[in-house]
Amino acid sequence: MKAVWFENFGSPSDTLIFGDLAKPQVAAGEVLVKMMTTGINPSDTKKRAGAFPNLLDAGLVIPHSDGAGVIEAVGEGVDSARIGERVWVYQAQYGRRFGTAAQYVAIDSCRAPVLPDEASFEVGAVLGIPVMTAHRCVFADGSVCGKTVLITGGAGRVGFYAIQWAKRGGAKVIATASNEADQKLCKELGAQHVVNHREANWAEQILSLTGGDKVDRVVDVEFGQNLPQVLKCLNIGGVIATYSSTVVPEPKLPFKDMMFMDITLRMVIVYAMPEQAKLDAIADIEQVLKNNSFSHRIAHALPFNEMAKSHQLIEQGGFGGCVVVNINN
């Protein structure tokens, strides 16, 4: 099969190899998926760059956790009726070497949920990390119905979906965005108020817009950088669910202030989500896809032989939406 892999750490052009590898054999409990698309996330580019020094100890790595395709074969214990199903794949390159940047992937059946006919394979390739992360951040601490949820970086890959999940859950949504176009997008997605997180004291702007009412939950894209402002507008007993802290990777916590606010601090990563949380997210994703009730943004859809460019795009940033590579379609 055709695949992309790396055997050394470094830049995309220096490390990513496009060539032929053996087609995987399906094992018990697994499905063999003919991949149509693969999704590229920041975690994928960081792995390739060397964020996990032991990653290559057992040999080459086919990158990417997310993707979509069609089940071609099933292993022992898997219903043969699944053959021919359209599926989306998540968590493919977690705790294992072979991800979705290939014409085929063999993976545990539960990591290949059904992709409704209403959704394209390109959309299927962005469901794993962006959509499931957003779902967990919004719903991990219970219903948001009637609550006020602040989503920082609302126009980002995760924030984009977090706004939609929170709105669907019955929350009043406030978002932050750094330019007029992104602010407009956040409002179109369902945010009632949007402030610019690049401006000083943006928490005061939020309180001014709400008449002094503080927020109940926060879905945060830059925990260390945003914490001082978040604490100014978070309610007693509030929750911060964060999935990234890139600008300030080792934040210093004002423990006493946070303790007296009775704050819950939740760190979110798809791989470590409880299995029930994954099942809940998958069920909700299936419903919004069937109903065409969510917006999606595929900023770049590239051919298979331009995988290096896809990684470069993620690393460079400067655009809204996800990056997908087409494989077999």
What does this structure look like?
This is NADPH:quinone reductase. It comes from Thalassotalea nanhaiensis. The structure is a single chain. With 329 residues, this protein is of the alpha/beta class. It has 2 domains: 2-126 and 296-326, Alpha-Beta Complex (Quinone Oxidoreductase, Chain A, domain 1); 130-269, 3-Layer(aba) Sandwich (Rossmann fold). It is 31% helix and 24% strand. It contains 11 helices and 14 strands. It has helices at 12-15, 42-49, 121-124, 127-139, 157-168, 180-189, 202-209, 223-233, 255-260, 275-290, 307-316; strands at residues 2-5, 17-20, 30-40, 66-74, 86-89, 104-108, 148-151, 172-176, 193-195, 215-220, 234-242, 264-267, 298-303, 322-326. The strands form 3 sheets. Strands 3, 4, 5, 6, 13 and 14 form a 6-stranded mixed beta sheet that branches. A 6-stranded parallel beta sheet has the order 9-8-7-10-11-12, sandwiched between helices. It has a two-stranded antiparallel ribbon with strand order 1-2. Strand 7 (148-151), helix 5 (157-168) and strand 8 form a beta-alpha-beta unit. Helix 4 packs across helix 5, helix 4 (127-139) crosses helix 10 and helix 7 (202-209) packs parallel to helix 8. The longest helix has 16 residues, at 275-290. The model has no long low-confidence stretch (mean pLDDT 97).
